[in-house]
Amino acid sequence: MLLSAAKTRRKILFRKAKLAEEAKRYDHMLRFMKEILEITNPDTDLSPKERCLLGAAFKNFVIHPRNSLSLATVSTGSWIKSPKRSIAGSYLLTSRTEISSACSEIVQLIDRRLLPAAISKESKVYYLTLKEISAGIWQR
């Protein structure tokens, strides 16, 4: 009975993540995918659909703030020689820290949970690719 309850919860979370994707609420999408990982046996790999949804959640969750950071950097470029410089610097630092934290979290999730449980080569390649993407985003 407990096993079926966990499977049911997993399906519900997956559906919620899909709904969050349609609503472009990537923060919610990522949270639902993390919940799936929390309730799943640590030795169990994600299904291909779950894997794909996790990757989409992470990429969209990070890419939008990164694009906003780029726009803010351009917008505040003229502030360098003004009293507003410290405001711009503080805001940009906060944004960079948020992006860095999200990337670090996904790398840890991949290293500690996803790669050890990956059964197929396809899963391993997917997780390693996602890790590389995250490292690339983090360093930009």
From TrEMBL:
The similarity comment for this entry is: Belongs to the 14-3-3 family.
Residue span(s) of domain 14-3-3: 16-131
Species name? Dendrobium nobile (Orchid)
Q: Which PANTHER family match?
A: 14-3-3 PROTEIN
Protein name in the entry:
14-3-3 domain-containing protein
